[in-house]
Specification:
alpha+beta; single chain; 2 domains; BirA Bifunctional Protein, domain 2; SH3 type barrels; seven-stranded mixed sheet; five-stranded antiparallel sheet; 5 helices; about 260 residues
Amino acid sequence: MHQLICSITKEQSTTSTSDLARQAAAKGAPSGSGFLAIEQTAGRGRQGRQWSSQRGGMYLSVILRPSVKKKYWFALSFAASLAALDTVRHQLALHFDEQHMPQIGLKWPNDVIMSGGKIAGILLEAEGQALVVGSGINIAPVQALARQEKNHQVVSPVALADIWPKAAGVLPTPEQLAHCYMKRLVYWYNKFDQIGFAPIRDAWLGNALFLGKVLTVWHGTKKITGVFCDLGMDGALLLLDDSGNIHHITTGDVQLLDN
């Protein structure tokens, strides 16, 4: 990771910062190249879903070129979610004491949840031997996307503006969040590069909001319900059902059943 350049190219508007990153990666752009946009016209999330990307958010994609085999790249999804969590938490810590700090943590696999809403999301896409890590953090108020998710619970978006104290003044800019996020991504990537997934897994579990809770995971029309008991060393969600069986889940939409 010592060769990471960590540069950021800024655009006012683009289809998706990950489109810019993938194009640059295909042309040989180095690890650490970041692409920031003030607005995305075709932002996307997991499973091809639309990501609301109006002006007022941080939309950043970073090129990474891991030296490990692709089967281990999943760990960087969790590393990126920790970087986004650190970035938001840093802003909150400037204006809230521990007693009034909004609840914030992680939802499997890589969403950042604040005050019950989704404030940040991560999307990883491979481009040859490069990995594009796309991240979005809501700063200004976000209008929920009008969509139906049959049998699925949709987490409403939330933004820093929704909880920002009046005495705190202006909101942080996308550029400020992007630079903070890049530093934290470098930190977690270094952990992965030097030690592997274990420290990332431990940190992720330490911030998991639903650990020990009863969850339902939907994979298409298939539904699995159980207690979220652990995170596998391959990043899988481990659910313990009423029969004592542990389900090893690598993809799906998570719904919390108890509070």
